[in-house]
Amino acid sequence: MALPAQLINAVALSVACPGAVLLFITRLREQRAIADLTARSEDRPIDQPMLFLDVRTERAHRLAYRIGFACMGVALLTSWISTRL
């Protein structure tokens, strides 16, 4: 593998790692939010309305997923380009 291809792969790796970490952290935050919501819902009487995550939290999770998957896609595309050199 030539030096330019290795440098492009290093760039792809430097984009993929933060994207993967962002996806992992977002999934953990989402699971914790759901667990907290479930715990709060169990203490409520049955005739009370259901609790849902607020819109801002849902929007933040969706944005983090989009950014994470975009990073992974850019890394994949960059790595694919490096194999064509």
Overview of this structure, please?
This protein is an all-alpha fold. The chain has one domain. The chain is 81% helix and 0% strand. The protein has two helices and no strands. It has helices at 3-42, 55-83. Helix 1 packs antiparallel against helix 2. The N and C termini lie close together (9 Å). The mean pLDDT is 92. The chain crosses the membrane at residues 6-25, 63-82. Keywords: Membrane, Transmembrane, Transmembrane helix.
Fold blueprint:
Layout: H1 3-42, H2 55-83
> What's the number of extended β-strand segments?
0
Low-confidence stretches: none
Give the fraction of residues assigned to helices: over 70%
Secondary-structure-based class equals: mainly alpha
**Into how many domains do the coordinates divide?**
1
Q: Return Rg in Å.
A: 20 Å
Sheet of most strands: none
Keywords: Membrane, Transmembrane, Transmembrane helix
Transmembrane segments: 6-25, 63-82
